[in-house]
């Protein structure tokens, strides 16, 4: 199911890049709209709530970037979303368990085992984050880095004391010791301190600036691709802060959007130059100048 969900996500990205959301929702192409809806449902079979968040946010950003909120499609989108949400409520328990897990953050009637599994994952993250927050001030100027001490290796070894110590301090868990915090801000500030925060903010801001310039001033034929790249970059920023992130992997993720956009648009697009008119230069008169070589006319 996970492979099927990943394949559906890739096909959704391809359709958004090829046709744009405007081309998918066009009334004269109902097959595209139906196929995109099916792919959206299949993409939730992985059971990850983050996938649902990413898909909805990216589509929402593209909806506004393509200017569809200024058309009648806004009312249609609101109506379809309301109808689909209402239809899911009575049949939530009958959906596949992976889709139920994707929707577990909503107040729906889903299976208790599925909800317990999803809430256990959330509680685990919150417990580690609460345990690590008091240690943040100690890494503001000099981060921990990615090195592991001998004690860290012992705690992650076969004689892992997690069973005894983690109940008192969740920061002693193996994943926390190995810098796998499941949090973008914590993975940045604990490993690299204040300077790492500056670097990741610069990468996010510079990437958004470049992608916006290419979306705003790029070739109109590339509008759908540029809008998709900008939407994915903005969604990744929200994902990094709110859901899941890691400095070592997300730096490359932000860079790939920018690199592909620069390669596709042959650099960073600029605002088109306007014709400069010198108001001090006077135009030549339209009357023909007399021929100096012609004979003078008699009075």
Describe this structure in words.
By secondary structure, this protein is an all-alpha fold. About 60% of the residues lie in helices and about 0% in strands. The protein is built from twelve helices and no strands. Helix 3 (about 50-65) crosses helix 11 and helix 10 packs parallel to helix 12. The longest helix is centred in the C-terminal third of the chain and has 34 residues, at about 185-215. The protein starts with a helix and ends in a 35-residue tail after the last helix. The model is unreliable at about 160-170 (pLDDT under 50).
Question: Topology of this structure?
Answer:
Layout: H1 2-24, H2 30-42, H3 49-65, H4 73-91, H5 97-102, H6 112-132, H7 150-155, H8 162-165, H9 174-177, H10 184-217, H11 223-242, H12 247-264
DSSP strand content = under 5%
> What summary fits the major beta sheet?
none
Unreliable stretches covering 5 or more consecutive residues:
158-172
**Secondary-structure element sequence?**
HHHHHHHHHHHH
- Label the structural class: mainly alpha
Global geometry: flat
How many runs of DSSP E, i.e. beta strands? 0
Radius of gyration: 28 Å
Fraction of residues in helix:
55-70%
* Termini gap: 103 Å
* Averaged pLDDT: 81
The tally of helices reads: 12
């Amino acid at each position: 199911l996970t492979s099927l969900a990943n394949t559906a996500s890739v096909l959704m990205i391809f359709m958004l890049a090829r046709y744009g959301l405007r081309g998918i929702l066009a009334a004269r192409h109902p097959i595209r709209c139906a196929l995109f809806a099916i792919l959206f449902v299949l993409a939730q079979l992985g059971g990850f709530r983050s996938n649902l968040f990413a898909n909805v946010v990216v589509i929402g950003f593209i909806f506004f970037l393509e200017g569809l909120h200024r058309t009648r499609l806004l009312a249609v989108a609101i109506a379809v979303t309301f109808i689909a949400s209402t239809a899911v409520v009575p049949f939530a328990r009958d959906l596949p368990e992976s889709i139920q897990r994707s929707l577990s953050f909503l107040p729906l009637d889903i299976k208790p085992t599925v909800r317990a599994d999803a809430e256990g994952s959330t509680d685990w993250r919150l417990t580690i984050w609460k345990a690590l927050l008091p240690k943040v001030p100690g890494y503001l100027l000099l981060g921990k880095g990615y090195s592991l001490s001998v004690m860290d290796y012992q705690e992650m070894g076969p004689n892992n004391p997690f069973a005894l110590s983690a109940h008192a301090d969740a920061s002693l868990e193996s994943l926390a010791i190995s810098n796998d915090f499941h949090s973008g801000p914590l993975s940045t500030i604990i490993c690299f301190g204040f300077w790492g925060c500056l670097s990741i903010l610069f990468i996010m801001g510079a990437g958004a600036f470049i992608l916006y310039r290419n979306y705003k001033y790029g070739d109109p034929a590339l509008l759908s691709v540029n809008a998709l790249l900008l939407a994915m970059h903005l969604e990744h920023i929200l994902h990094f802060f709110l859901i899941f992130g890691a400095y070592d992997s997300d730096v490359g993720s932000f860079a790939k959007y920018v690199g592909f956009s620069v390669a596709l648009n042959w650099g960073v697009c600029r605002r088109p130059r306007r014709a400069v008119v010198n108001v001090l230069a006077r135009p030549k008169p339209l009357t023909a100048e007399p021929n100096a070589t012609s004979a003078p006319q008699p009075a």
